[in-house]
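Course assignment 3, question 2. Fill in each field.
Student: A.L.
Task: Predict the tertiary structure for the chain below.
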Amino acid sequence: MAKNQQISRFWGVPSFLILIVINIVILIFSTNMMLLTPKSMGMSVLSLFQQGIHGTMTWFTDTVNSINELKNLKNQYDLTLQKLNEFQEMNRNFEEIIQENILLREQLGFSKSLDLDHIPAKIIGKDPVNLFSSFIIDKGSMDGITKDMPVTAYQNGVLGLVGKVIQTGFNSSQVIPIYNSTNFVASRFQKSRFEGLVSGQGDTENHLIMNYVKKTALNQINVDDMVITSGMQSLYPGGIYIGKVESITSKEYNTSLEIEITPTIDFGQLEFVFILTGLEEQMK
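Answer field:
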């Protein structure tokens, strides 16, 4: 029992004291230490303490420096990431400018070749209540725009009907597109010349509908035939593309055909339009 207590007391000695004792023993039994005096042995022990303290301070200093370096690297990373995001945003804006410039050049080229008097305009807003019921252009009464002027656009190499002006402001105007259910356009088939009346169904998800086409036209019209404005009403001049035939329906109880039409203009990509002016004088 007493022996166990002695062992416990021995292992309870602080480890750093044990290390010091071991180092002293090693020094005593080294070849050179045989000549050491008690004074020089004391200096050696003190040197060991100094080396330990120096090593600890060096480790602490290196740790602090490493932490500072990590902070600096983090700051540099954040700054680089910010600059990268700014560059990517600038690149996106640059690409947008290039695409808009290409489109503007295309519109300008067509504008110069268009025989009808017109005013070019850009779409700047949609109706907040119903995004597909009307839209706003950046030209108004100051630019010569008046109510009921027809609105067209150039896409895929052709001039297509967009709608008409229903209200003008000083420097902007409101336009209702042809797919608006309140808009009716006198029309005819470009090839067979049969006439009808085109109207919308209220949104771009549905086709335009052409009604009042005589049933005798059934064998003379086909899917993909083009439909144009007839010019039979003073609002729209003749020969402007409205769309192409998607389907033809003949119902027994109806005296006329019902034609579904896909608009020539893709309203989802529409940015620029041409308002046709001076039509009354041109039609005289």
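Instructor remarks: The chain has two domains: 2-61, 118-283. Residues 2-61 form one domain.
Grade: pending
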